[in-house]
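Section 4.2 – Deliverable D4.2 (structural model, holo form)

The reporting period included a commitment to supply a predicted holo structure for the target in complex with zinc ion. Inputs used:
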Amino acid sequence: MVATRSIFPVVMRCGRGCVAVLFLLACQALAFEWTLVKHDGRDYVPIEDVAKFYSFTQASYSGDNINLEGATLRMVGGVNSRELYLNGLKFILSFPIIKVDDRILMSRMDLSKLVEPVLRPARIVAKPVRTVVLDAGHGGFDQGAQSILGNEKDFALDVVQRARDLLLKAGFNVRLTRSADVFVRLEDRVAFGNRQSNAVFVSVHFNAGAREEAGGLETYSLAPRGVPSTNSLNLTLSDFQPGIGNLRDPENIALATAMHTALITRVGGNDRGIKRARFIVLRDSNIPGVLIEGGFLTNPVDRVRIATPIYRQLLAQAIYQGILSYNRALNRGGTSEQMMVKRGDASEPDSKDQGASIWDPLKPNVYTLPEDARK
Ligand SMILES: [Zn+2]
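Output (structure tokens):
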């Protein structure tokens, strides 16, 4: 059998256009029988299978709301929605959850490119991060987003310099794509990152919105091949082009999860979620990459916060924390075991066999779920 950590399909038809498939998990004795459903030319899996496979012990589907709960993990979503909450952290799915013949379905793409690497990061085969490439967006004549309190290029550089200091102190190597107010082409930034080994690429930006009300934090992870960017409505031909960054799909979403978790818990503010895009610095990167948007310069509240050094220090601390969480979640380093949450009862052979582990920040009660907040 091919030694791979990812789920891959084998065999079996069960008539009526539905194909029952065994996704065999290599490296483990267990085989789980997934039901595969074709809809509009796309593969889906029933949400019940997701619940069963990831050991969610309670599942409720009232109306079109989906609520799965396990020992330490809660998954909340909705039919016809692309929003998925994992212990309150917001993810934007590549395709909406759908309901076909009274069956709630999640795209197989989201299962394999989001749910699996996020819920079981320890299964990702990756080297521990030693070098962090910090990329301050824009620079020189390229101001980025502008505001009366300052411009994106300057705030991004300040955050990057603060993050550099924290990371250096912790013993990481740090490389900056720019350390002054100069213009650097996107292609040069990504080529610079690609020369580093055991490294990740962290790009720092601030947002601008057409509406003043738009505010909060969002984190971008490279869109997997064949899915639309979060902010575009339809698939285009270019969405199917292979990007070198897609070789890092599991690491990319794991890094984005670590980074966004740190941002939301440390910095706070409106959680706009983990989104997908094909920015050049992500698409052409051969090291895992993430792009964070640290707030909106067009939003009156965000703008004032961003112009405050304390806020930018919090962003820097979140970047630092995100790197640490990423390393730990991938099960590197001596203390990793205690930093991870074991899912399920450790006495159950089942949960042990699966080596199930999730992000330590995804403990229950770390986040306030949207419905809890209304109580
Ligand atoms: Zn920008």
